[in-house]
Design a protein that fits this description.
By secondary structure, the protein is an alpha/beta fold. The chain contains five helices and four strands; from the N terminus they run βαβαββααα.
Length: 169
């Protein structure tokens, strides 16, 4: 079951990817692809929200919730414990920052829409319990991301990169 996706667009910069309908379609496709790969059992009326914001907003969220006073590309805020996913109507929230995403896409010679799709999948996987705190966890998460993106005809974002490094204390 694919969750219902609600979006909020708080930065006009996101117009680079089209209107609200286009962003909702991109998000829904990304989440559906990830659901297809994880085989996670979600509540029939499960939902998530996604905030399309700017670097200033995500920096505020990053500082408030993670203690890092800097922008980042994507943040996820799970609303339910993994064992409760089949019962939880609200999976959580994802925030994605335009400037960071656009810069990363340009630096990595990727289409912005492909990179945002990847980050939606990445954020969704966090909502349903996946993480990359260790190399083993990172490998599992990257494999799910690759397969989800492949379903959508998007190239492997890790083909030229090593594993995501586990955060250091």
């Amino acid at each position: 079951m694919t969750p219902v996706v609600d979006i909020a667009i708080e930065s006009d910069a996101w117009n680079a990817l089209g209107d609200e309908e286009a962003l909702l379609a991109l998000t829904a496709r990304a989440v559906a692809a990830a659901c297809g790969e994880t085989k996670v059992k979600l509540k029939k009326d499960a939902e998530l929200s996604l905030l399309f914001c700017d670097d200033a907003e995500i920096q505020t969220l990053n500082k408030q919730w993670r203690g890092f006073d800097k922008p980042t590309n994507v943040l996820s805020f799970p609303a339910a414990a993994v064992q409760d996913l089949g019962k939880a109507p609200m999976l959580g929230d994802i925030a994605i920052a335009f400037e960071t995403c656009a810069r990363e896409a340009k630096d990595e010679a990727k289409a912005l829409s492909d990179h945002v799709t990847h980050l939606v999948i990445h954020g969704f996987l966090h909502l349903i319990g996946y993480d990359h705190m260790s190399e083993d966890e990172a490998q599992v998460m990257e494999d799910l991301e690759r397969r989800s993106l492949q379903r959508l005809g998007i190239d492997d974002p890790y083909r030229d990169l090593s594993l995501i490094e586990a955060p250091r204390s």
